[in-house]
Amino acid sequence: MDPGRIIVALDFSKKEDALRIVDELEGLVNFYKIGLELFLSEGPSIISLIKAKNKKIFLDLKLHDIPNTVYKAVKSLLQYEIDMFTIHTSGGTEMMKKALLAVKEYSYKENIPPPKILGVTVLTSLNQKALNEIFPFSISQEVLVKNLALKAKQAGLDGVVAGASSAKEIKELCGNGFIVVTPGIRIEKTEFHDQKIVATPQEAFSLGADYIVIGRAITRNNSPRRIITDMIK
């Protein structure tokens, strides 16, 4: 297993805890996810602290607002040299295109490589029952994910965040170059926590995922290095 395809989720509220994991996994993991909890509690400085250790940052804030607001928000985020970030595909085609425009303008102006934009399809905490409660019409989870992924592709996004079970069909629909990042990764399939759609690393990659996001199975373990080492054997 290529360790470069593993993204460790720093789901903490304190920078000390996040930096401890980064240091413990030095030489094994190069890509880290910063989500709402850590970003809001520590601010953008946490990005700089981790980038100073020569790591890649996946900023998972799932932006979702009117197009012009997302455009301005993306412009603000890009100053922190992130490598990948998320917006909600359900924000619509115009919103996704405005996010892409912000990336193109900023990258051209600063002469830097553009970060990858990923569209969030359906949260892995939602199952079919939850979707039935949200929508006043019947739509399968699989169809919804594929439709949102296709909209993201048509809007020019680099890829999507989706459960492992959808990865193969997304690749067939959007092409092999379209990135699929899969959260809800568990070392054992018996570990669900608050996720409804889970997979092991091996399952996710075999189904076509380009990257996996794994959090608690690593960060809440007493031996995170051992877990990662065992994964990449």
Automatic annotation (TrEMBL):
Which Pfam families does the entry link to?
OMPdecase
Biological or metabolic pathway of the protein:
Pyrimidine metabolism; UMP biosynthesis via de novo pathway; UMP from orotate: step 2/2
GO BP terms, alphabetized: 'de novo' pyrimidine nucleobase biosynthetic process; 'de novo' UMP biosynthetic process
Outline the extent of the Orotidine 5'-phosphate decarboxylase domain.
5-231
As one GO molecular function, the record gives: orotidine-5'-phosphate decarboxylase activity
Location of the active site? 60, 62, 65
Q: Which InterPro entries match?
A: Aldolase_TIM (IPR013785), OMPdecase (IPR014732), OMPdecase_AS (IPR018089), OMPdecase_bac (IPR047596), OMPdeCOase_dom (IPR001754), RibuloseP-bd_barrel (IPR011060)
Q: What keywords is this UniProt entry annotated with?
A: Decarboxylase, Lyase, Pyrimidine biosynthesis
Catalytic activity reported: orotidine 5'-phosphate + H(+) = UMP + CO2
Q: What is its EC number?
A: 4.1.1.23
Q: Name one GO cellular component term.
A: cytosol
What are the binding positions for substrate in this chain? 11, 33, 60-69, 124, 186, 195, 215-216
Tree of life domain: Bacteria
HAMAP family, per the entry: OMPdecase_type1_B
Relate the protein's function as given in its record.
Catalyzes the decarboxylation of orotidine 5'-monophosphate (OMP) to uridine 5'-monophosphate (UMP).
Q: Which family does it belong to?
A: Belongs to the OMP decarboxylase family. Type 1 subfamily.
Question: Subunit structure, per the record?
Answer: Homodimer.
This chain belongs to the protein called Orotidine 5'-phosphate decarboxylase
- Please name the source species: Thermodesulfovibrio aggregans
